[in-house]
Design a protein that fits this description.
Number of strands: 13
Largest sheet: 5 strands, antiparallel
Order of helices and strands: EEEEEEHEEHHEHEEEEH
Bound molecules: glycine
Structural class: alpha+beta
Helix content: 10-25%
Number of helices: 5
Shape: globular
Length: about 240
């Protein structure tokens, strides 16, 4: 019974996605290092859309020139418009970009966050004082700090529960945390877990974020998948092609 006098026709965008995330106090902008997300559930970008099954940083989907173009032509105009509307934006502004085959930079979406699971990869590379940065973004500092980043590559693999994204099953015990965490460069972030009777159990759709650093993406990926293979819970699902 829906009726409308409006039809919106949108351009179909084909290309490679990149997540451009900047820190801003409403006027000034410092970009975070590049990353990209893998949104489909299954290898090869098939299956249902998810909140993100993994990330890699740096991203080879966007060049430095495309990133600068996006800051000048997308990020700054958005911030200017928000100031003019009396609702200046402070914090982390996330532009989900589609880089078309001809090199054009298109906006798919904006988020007001550091991205999930982009944040996990970015925090493995961030070398500054996060408190100082957040204080500056609140508008309380004279300038934004210069951000320093490790030259390492990072791969983050999301371990999801059975039935995710439609009907995630919860309450299964997670095995292998200690062993997986002992691999060099690996840090495991908890996303949908809880502890019951001294044991970690699944408590959400995206359960664990397995991150690994490496001198290049290949090393980071090898370590991340070594750790992912050691982690077990009933029905665990994850992509095998993050960072490929
Ligand atoms: N990874 C996409 C998002 O945070 O929306």
């Amino acid at each position: 019974d829906l009726e409308s006098d409006k039809v919106v026709i949108e351009q179909f965008l084909h290309g490679r996605e990149a997540s451009l995330i900047v820190a801003t106090d409403g006027t000034r902008v410092v970009p975070l290092v590049s990353s990209h997300d893998y949104k489909r559930l299954c290898d090869g970008q098939v299956g249902p859309n998810t909140g993100g099954m993994g990330t890699v940083s740096p991203s080879n989907h966007i060049t430095a020139a495309q990133e600068q173009w996006a800051i000048d032509n997308i990020i700054h105009p958005v911030l200017k418009e928000m100031r003019q509307r009396g609702t200046p934006f402070r914090g982390f502004l996330y532009a989900g970009l589609m880089i078309s085959d001809d090199g054009a930079v298109n906006v798919l979406e904006f988020n007001s966050r550091m991205g999930d699971p982009e944040c996990q990869s970015l925090m493995r590379r961030y070398e500054g004082d996060l408190g100082e940065l957040l204080f500056a973004l609140s508008g309380s500092a004279d300038s934004l700090p210069k951000l320093s980043w490790s030259a390492a590559s990072v791969v983050c693999v999301v371990l999801a529960s059975e039935g995710y994204p439609e009907n995630p099953v919860k309450g299964d015990e997670i095995f292998g945390m200690e062993l997986a965490s002992s691999i060099p460069g690996v840090v495991i972030f908890h996303a949908g877990t809880t502890m019951a009777a001294g044991k970690f159990t699944t408590a959400g759709g995206r359960v664990l974020n397995v991150t690994a650093t490496g001198s290049d993406v290949t090393e980071a990926r090898t370590r991340a998948y070594r750790a992912a293979d050691m982690l077990q819970f009933r029905g665990v699902q994850f992509r095998r092609d993050i960072g490929m």
